[in-house]
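Exercise 7 asks you to align residues with tokens for two separate proteins.
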Amino acid sequence: MNDHYINALSLDESAPVHDKIYKQNESKFNFLKTILSKRSETLYKIINMIITVQYEGILNNNQLKYRPLTQNMVAENINMHPSTISRGIHSRYIQINHTLYKLSDLFVQPYNSTISTHHIKHKIKYLIKNEPFRNPFSDDTLVSYLKGEDIFISRRTVAKYRKELQIKNCNQRRAIYKEKDAKK
């Protein structure tokens, strides 16, 4: 964080200290400096919590190792309102080991206490990437494969995640595969 500027702030020392306007401005200045310090302190608390939870994922620069983390979880842990967390991470970045992270990207929606939705989406993407070209997996087939890995989600949820990943359904993928095969 670039908060070194807070301590560098100062009033114009050439102004007369007994001046009424100086006294008013000094009060406003001290208030501003206090607010900036509190804001910085809040951001440090938020970042500390995020890094504590996402340590393994950040250390390995691997999103699959991110643990479920929500703004509400951080808010409860540091005794603040979730809206404060939201404002604190909005358009903020942190650099760790020469990698720049957007703070909001370090929040991962939990599917349950151990698996994140990001992890499930990655599994779906992996299954589709490795599917047989002649017989693409339907959403029901993907549900079956995920059940084999102890991930119990509905077909509608698989379809929703697949759409979020911008992956076409099995019939559309089959048509694309046939078209590519015909060009060969």
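Second protein for Exercise 7:
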Amino acid sequence: MKELKVVYALIRNNEGKVLLVHNTDGGGWSLPGGKVEQGETLIEAVKREIMEETGLTATIGDIISINEGKSYQMSVHTLFIMFKATVEDYTTDIQMKDEVSELRWVTVEEADEKLIYYHHSLNTFLENKATYYDEGYVD
């Protein structure tokens, strides 16, 4: 079974709204994020995905959720890692228009309705914290 890592960012603005992206692949609404490329750290991947999907430069904080799933049909085992992220400038600009059709700042309640993959409110994630540390290369 193939192993896959996917990173996402929970970004809130000054009004407490969270940023969602609408995916063109039929996946609906999600937090900004995507697949970790070979050789990338989790932080590098989530920063890249945020920039590609939203045009935002983000500072990445703690991990706030780790989910996993298996697809026997696709023979893949996926880890979904969600980070808390902050941005200085909230001006968005979709860079990957073939992947993302729309960006929207929404309340947590609206996000909870649109994000079908989570079984509880994003408010729960906002309270979570797990420190992430990249140990780099070890010889």
